[in-house]
Amino acid sequence: MANQFQLFKRRRFSAMFFTQFLGAFNDNIFKQALILVLTYTAASQIGVEVSILNNLAAMLFILPYFLFSALAGQIADKYEKSKLTRLTKLLELTIMSVAAVGFVFEWYALLFVALFLMGTHSTFFGPIKYAYLPQAMKKDELVGANGLFQMGTSLAILIGMIVAGLLTQLPQSLYWISATVVIIALLGYVATRYIPITPAMQPDLKINWNIFTTSMATVRYLYSLPFLFFIILGNSWFWFYGATFLTQTPEFSKVILNGDESVVIFLLTLFSVGVSIGSLLCKSLTRNRVSLRLLPFGIAGLSIFAIDLYFSLSGLDIAINADALFGIGELFKVTGSWRVFADLFFLGFSGGLYIVPLYASMQAYAPKSHRARIVGANNIFNAIFMVTSAVFAIVILNTLKLSLPQLFLVTGVLNIAFGIFLYIKLNKHVMQAVIQTDDEPHEKQS
């Protein structure tokens, strides 16, 4: 694992890593701060239900992935990636300046516009960063680089949510939020200045600006590559699975564990740290090779610990008292709580073992000329699966009237069926795929 962290000494890795980390960090400070402002301030001021505002916010952030992912993939394949990254970060800096105005003057319509634009920014940045890695990394660095990226993303999301919560508690909180998101966007742009030049993979590509026809063409092209198609289905299932669990964390923390806000953060931390450790171990466990050998272990862990979470939560005996919520220290004393904590950690750990091999395989096996468009197709499917996860949870909890532990049980059982299907399909088509990873990075300086 020590060799894995040696990548931070390489500018071709560290510059893009910190660009990605700061972007994910800023995304989550902004989104979480907006959700907290909507929940505790805006809803009462403008007379709209909190659930409506929060669901609208979620929709506005995901919508650009449906609309622009295929176009973003074309642009990332056609143009040089360091320049594109700098342009996207200048766009982020502009958007966060707009958001700062929205926060300071409490113009909620402007904040929703900024949220949609941030979703658009993330949509265009995604194909750049994931197509960049196989181009800039050596073949034996790709798994380690993906593990570090996944670790960084998980920690950036978690820390961003924590920072947002802290900022909203400060006096003049809207000013603090505004200053923070602008400063982090500026730091992100500074990081892009160190990203080395990587040659455009298809500079003669004629871009189709019709977002609907190009999206259909990208999905059709992906379907013609069965191995990559099922890799991306597997990636998207991870987002479905993760969204199903993490979205319910605040509710099951309060309703089942009788925990306060600190418990929510602690549970999210357990999951995120688990993902980070699992992601980092992938390099050692696969001996630096792009391989799916860890996938069965990830699939098994995601099901085993989800099913055990059902039993551990069902076995708790906690009196719910909204006027006396538990802190972390009090919850540690509750019999059976450690089992719940272990389940959440190992769910994250299994997720790391599951997702890193899939992302590395997507990058390694994608045709060089279409790498970014493959990532764009991946983002389209990710968005579809995330929206489906919300519908799935609503049906289970509200229509079928099942409990939160039962939702986790159903999800764990479904994961067994999907995991077996996925592994069979990948083994069937892997021999038809030709690995595309370069032996050497395309850059002059390390």
Plain-language structure description:
The chain is mostly helical and 446 residues long. It is 78% helix and 0% strand. It is built from 15 helices and no strands. α2 runs antiparallel to α3, α2 packs antiparallel against α5 and α2 runs parallel beside α6. The longest helix is centred in the N-terminal third of the chain and has 36 residues. The protein is globular and about 65 Å long. The protein starts with a helix and ends in a 17-residue tail after the last helix.
**Beta-strand content bin:** under 5%
Q: Tell me the major beta sheet.
A: none
Distance between the first and last residues' Cα = 20 Å
Low-confidence blocks of residues: 437-446
Class from secondary-structure proportions = mainly alpha
Shape: globular
- Give helix % range: over 70%
Order of helices and strands: HHHHHHHHHHHHHHH
- Mean pLDDT value: 88
Count the beta strands: 0
In DSSP terms (H or I, runs of 4 or more residues), the helix count works out at 15
Gyration radius, in Å? 21 Å
What topology does this entry show?
Blueprint: H1 2-5, H2 11-46, H3 50-78, H4 81-105, H5 108-136, H6 142-167, H7 173-192, H8 211-223, H9 226-255, H10 261-285, H11 295-314, H12 328-332, H13 337-365, H14 371-399, H15 404-429
Helix pairs in contact: 2-3, 2-5, 2-6, 2-7, 3-5, 3-8, 3-14, 4-5, 4-7, 5-14, 6-10, 6-13, 8-14, 9-10, 9-13, 9-14, 9-15, 10-13, 11-13, 11-15
